[in-house]
Amino acid sequence: MDLQQEQQQWWARWQEGRIGFHLPEVNPLLIRHVHALATETHPNETSCILVPLCGKSKDLIWLQSYFHQVIGVELVPQAVKAFFEENQITPTHSLRDPFATYQHGNLALLQGDIFQMSSKHLEDQPIRTVFDRASLIALPNELRKNYVALLRSLVSPNTKLLLVTLAYEDGVISGPPHSVPENEIFDLFAFATNIELLEKQDILPESPNFQKAGLRWAYEAVYLITFP
Ligand SMILES: C[S@@+](CC[C@H](N)C(=O)[O-])C[C@H]1O[C@@H](n2cnc3c(N)ncnc32)[C@H](O)[C@@H]1O
Q1: Within 6 Å (CB) of ligand 1, which residues are found?
Q2: Which of 5, 46, 140, 156 has the most CB within a 10 Å radius?
Q3: What is the helix (H) or strand (E) element at residue 60, kind and residue range?
Q4: Residue 43 pLDDT exceeds 70
Q5: Sorting pLDDT into bands at 50, 70 and 90, what band is 82?
Q6: In 3-state terms, what secondary structure has residue 167?
Q7: Where are the domains of the chain?
Q8: Could you tell me the distance, in angstroms and rounded to a whole number, from the CA of residue 43 to the centre of ligand 1?
Q9: How many C-beta atoms surround the C-beta of residue 141 within 10 A?
C-alpha cells in the first residue's frame, strides 16, 4: 500500500466511524505517567508538548492544564472538526502552510500530513515533551523509521517522549493498530539516551475483537524515551 492509499484509509475510517481507538475519557496511562514528562525548566522558554496523530483525543484538553502550549497534529479534517464540536470549542483559524491550523487558548491543532511538518510549523516553540498514544503503531512498518526521524528533527535536546504502544502475536491480524514489540522500539530509538519501560499490561481480556480474531496474546506498553 502506498502512502496515499494509507492516508485514504484514515479518511475512510473517520467517515465511516471506524474509530475504535478513540477513548471517551482521558487516557488513564497518560494520567498515571504524566509526571515522568517533567523536564528542567528553561528560563525564557515555555513548556510545549507535541501530540502527533492526535485524532480527537480528550488528552489534548487535559494536557492544556499541564503545559503552556499543546500542539496536536491530525490528518483528517473530520477528526479535527469533531474534536472542537464535541468539546464545544470555537477555535480561530489560520494557515501554517500546508497545515490548516486551529487555535484555542494554549492549544494549536494542525490539520494535515505530519510527514509534511518541519520545525518552521512550530513557530519558535521548542518541543521538550511528546505524547504518542497509538500514533507510532498507527503507521505501517515502512513509515515508522521516517516518523521517528521526523520527531527527532522537530524536538529539542533532552526531549522526553511518553510512548504508548501495542504488541500482539504475529501473523494473525493485519493492522492498524500494528504490533510494535519491545525489540523494535529499542531498534527505532537506538539513538536515545534512555529507554525505560514504565508499564506493560495484558490487554487480551478487555479486547473482544482480538479474542475473536484468535490472538493468543496482546499487550500494551508504556515507554519513557529520552532524546539526546
Ligand atoms: C490510532 S489513531 C490515534 C489517535 C489518538 N492518538 C488517540 O489516542 O485517540 C491515529 C490517528 O492518526 C491520524 N493519522 C494517520 N496518518 C497521519 C498522518 N500522516 N499525519 C497526521 N495524522 C495522521 C489518523 O487519522 C488517526 O486519527
Answers
A1: 7, 10, 21-22, 53-55, 57, 73-76, 79, 113-115, 133-135, 138
A2: 156
A3: helix 59-63
A4: no
A5: very high
A6: strand
A7: 3-226
A8: 33
A9: 11
Ligand 1 center to 113 CA (angstroms): 10
> Which pLDDT score is estimated for 47?
87
Query: Residue 40 pLDDT more than 80?
Result: no
Polymer length of the chain: 228
Supply the mean pLDDT for the chain. 95
16 grid coordinates: 465511516
Report which secondary-structure segment, H or E, holds 6.
helix 3-16
Atom nearest to 177 CA in ligand 1: 1
Place of cell 535536546: 157
Fold of 3-226: Rossmann fold (3.40.50)
Q: In the numeric block, which cell numbers belong to residue 131?
A: 505524547
pTM: 0.96
Host H or E run for residue 199: strand 194-202
The pair phi, psi for residue 152, each rounded to 5°, is -60, -35
Which of 1, 9, 53 has most ligand 1 atoms within 8 Å of CB, for mutation?
53
C-alpha closest to that of 57 among 95, 33, 39, 31: 31
